Amino acid sequence: MRILMALLLAFCLSPGAALAGDDHERALEALREGRILPVEAILDAARKDFGGDVLDIELEDEDEGFIYEIKLIAADGRIMKLDYDAATGQLLRVRQRHGGNH
User: Fold this and answer.
1) Closest by CA position to 81, among listed 102, 97, 65, 63
2) Each residue of 40-84: pLDDT tens digit?
3) Which domain holds residue 7?
4) Nearest CA to 66 among 46, 87, 52, 83?
5) Which residues contact 5 (CB under 8 A, 6 or more apart)?
6) Residue 73: CB atoms within 10 Å
7) Angle of helix 2-10 relative to helix 39-50, nearest 10 degrees?
8) Which of 49, 82, 95, 101 is most buried as measured by Cβ atoms within 10 A of its Cβ?
9) Dist. CA 72–CA 49, nearest whole Å
């Protein structure tokens, strides 16, 4: 299941990262070796802390390591972008804006 999730994430990489060559393989290798957490663990944390519905998930290969970027819509209509350290699961950054006609 973890490999399947990693493969699904490979399709969610940002266009810039997708052009970077072997990012997909590095992500799969990091997941297999336990250097990054499975996306399920990150999604569980995001749902617990913020609720709402997940709109998009990306796995970015940054200089400081892999970052999961989660985009979700909260019950009150806010669009939230959450950055998590893929190795530790630590929430690194929250960005939000109000959606709809509020």
Assistant:
1) 97
2) 999 999 999 899 999 999 999 888 899 999 999 988 889 999 999
3) 2-98
4) 87
5) 38, 39, 40
6) 16
7) 80
8) 82
9) 12
Give the tokens for residue 81. Answer: 């972008």
Tell me if 2 sits within 8 A of 59, measured CB to CB: no
- The CATH number linked to 23 is 3.10.450.40
Specify the pTM. 0.73
Polymer length in residues for the chain: 102
- Is the pLDDT at 30 greater than 50? The verdict is yes
Element (H, E) at 25: helix 23-32
Indicate the number of domains in the chain. Answer: 1
Which are the contacts of 40, defined by CB distance < 8 A and separation ≥ 6?
5
Contact residues for 36 (Cβ-Cβ < 8 A; gap 6+) = 27, 30, 59, 66, 86, 87
Burial class of residue 95, CB neighbours in 10 A (0-12, 13-18, 19+)? exposed
Q: Contact at 8 Å (CB) between 85 and 67?
A: yes
Tokens matching residue 7: 């493969």
